[in-house]
Design goal:
Elements lengths: L21 H6 L7 H7 L8 H12 L3 E9 L2 E6 L2 E6 L17 E4 L6 E6 L5 E5 L7 E6 L16 H14 L2
Parallel strand pairs: 3-5
Antiparallel strand pairs: 1-2, 1-4, 2-3, 4-5, 6-7
């Protein structure tokens, strides 16, 4: 699964910051917002676009920083922000619905300072990879969010399991990636 945007397929690593490009500069609106637009332009290689900027605008007015979640584990997450990778607590965005928990690929509004920093909210998802849980209940488990492209790859070293490939294809299709 790729977390890069359809406009930038050259991003090789989620944790490295590619050099700024003219495409990143074009996201800045040039309306005098200056620092906020320049900082958000650093997120373009991670999928930031005008639609995400519009959805984030109310949170920017509160002084929060946009970021892309790249790892989640035990109530903490790593978030790529315009200022680098930060570790943030998810206590404020932990719902009872397992499909609404924060996951890799989510866009979040993060506190700019503090120890610990907190994710204050997540933006609405465009796409989501959801699988059924291993429990007997009929609820899903979110695997990744806001993925634009999905690739199904299997080893050719063993006999192909067509049922497994079919499940992967169905998962990718249902995600809307």
């Amino acid at each position: 699964m790729s977390l890069s945007s359809p406009q930038d397929r050259s991003t090789s690593s989620l944790l490295s910051f590619p050099p700024s490009t003219s495409r990143a500069s074009s996201v800045a609106s040039g309306d005098g917002a200056g620092d906020a637009d320049a900082a958000a332009a650093a997120l373009v290689p991670y999928g930031w676009d005008a639609d995400w900027a519009t959805a984030f605008a109310p949170y920017a007015a509160e002084g929060l920083v946009p970021g892309r979640v790249v790892r989640v584990d035990r109530g903490q997450c790593d978030v790529v922000t315009p200022h680098g990778l930060v570790r943030a607590d998810t206590a404020f965005v932990t719902p009872h619905d397992p499909l609404r928990v924060i996951c890799t690929g989510d866009w979040a509004a993060v506190e700019p300072h503090g120890t610990p920093r907190y994710v204050r909210t997540c933006l609405d998802r465009r796409t989501a990879f959801v699988r059924s849980t291993s429990s007997k209940r009929s609820e899903g488990q979110i695997l990744a969010a806001n993925v634009d492209h999905a690739i199904v790859a299997v080893s050719l070293a063993v006999e192909l399991d067509l049922g497994r490939i079919e499940r992967f294809l169905a998962l990718a299709w249902e995600s809307a990636a």
